[in-house]
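Me: I hope this is not a bother. Any chance you could explain this protein sequence and its structure tokens? It all follows right here:
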Amino acid sequence: MAAMALMVCLVYSCNFAQETDLKPGKDRWSIKTSIPDHQVRKTIALIDLLKLPAPVENYNRNQYNENRIADSVKLNGKYYREGDIITTFGYIHLVALEKDEKKSDGDYHIQILPGKEWTDSCLIIEVPYPEFVKNDSGLKDSVSKARNFVNETILKGHDFNTKGKAITPAIYVKITGQLFFDGIHLNSGTLRGKHDKKTNRPMHSYTCWEIHPVISFEQVKN
């Protein structure tokens, strides 16, 4: 038992070491690490999230870097807008740490699908590094708990990296967080999404919509 406890401690220490010496990101950073004061809460199916149209045709980096996109989009008779606090359900298939050569960002990058099987077309959700959440102790506490959930329930103490760790079997969760449009990727022409590094199985994201920041996870039965 003592040896097992030591092993778990060492693994968690390794995960903690990955999260040190980080630097805040730049693109839309104040939006990614905050939620609106006056929150609109909605529930939406993941398959509908993957179909949401873009709120703008051409993304203006200067216009939206410090401001949420005000234009709403309509799907199935309902309206959605960046900044809505949404709840959805899906299977977590991959977890990665966003950390480039400049040691920036530190988000937990997670890819979710409507089904149990690994396939293409995922939604990306992100959990910020808590120390980058400023002037909102409630949100900081929420993202801390969300990251703990990932470490303890999803990764179960195992290490992960910037390339991504496939989660097998996938874990079904209830997810709540801010609807966020990562418009910097809108006209890039580059497919998003990380691969399973062991098998190189692709899992692209074809939408710039994300849940970012995630403020809560709950494992549920399906």
User: Anything to note?
Assistant: Strands lie at 41-43, 73-75, 78-80, 85-99, 105-113, 123-127, 165-181, 209-219. The longest helix spans residues 137-154. The chain has one domain: 2-219. Confidence is low (pLDDT under 50) at residues 1-17.
